[in-house]
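Support reply, case 0932

Customer input (verbatim):
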Amino acid sequence: MPLPTLVFLAFGIGLSAALLGAAELRISPRHALFSSSFKAFALFLVLLVVPVSVYFYVFHGDWFLLYSVDVRRVPSALALLGFVAEAGLGVLGFMLGSAFARAQRMGAGYAIAAACAPLAVAVAFVWPERLRSVGTFAQYRGDFGLTPYGGPLMQAGIAMGCVLAVGASFLLVRIRAARKRA
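Our regenerated output:
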């Protein structure tokens, strides 16, 4: 999974988590970041989204960044800030969702959340030549030694995609079930 896909997914799932936790957010005077919905979403970010991003960055970094930057030249502190920013965009999605929930504009929130899924998939249609080729930054820029998409990268993409799908489903069902109990 390339970085833009994970960013859209984190943002959309954060938005959805807040909207599904709307009952709690509407009645609580506390900040949205102190809600149980946010705690569950934060665990999802820390335990699934960021580790998946770190995996792809470490093992398939140039492909993960769509060959826009040579990962060997990126300082580790800057990469860490990138992962924090990715999680921050997920939190921003949750904050936007909580604003929609408290304003009782659920339809607009769900529309934006629903738009994130096709945008995450659209990355494959916007940069197909970059995603079909596997290699290093130098190989991509020099157009030599690239291998077609498949092998370990495809297996990791399928495995991590399934883990994220199951984790996101569990998160959203858990938040919805908690809402019904309340």
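We compared this against your earlier run and they match. Two observations from our side: The beta strands are 133-134, 147-148. Residues 3-181 form one domain. Please reopen the case if you see a mismatch on your end.
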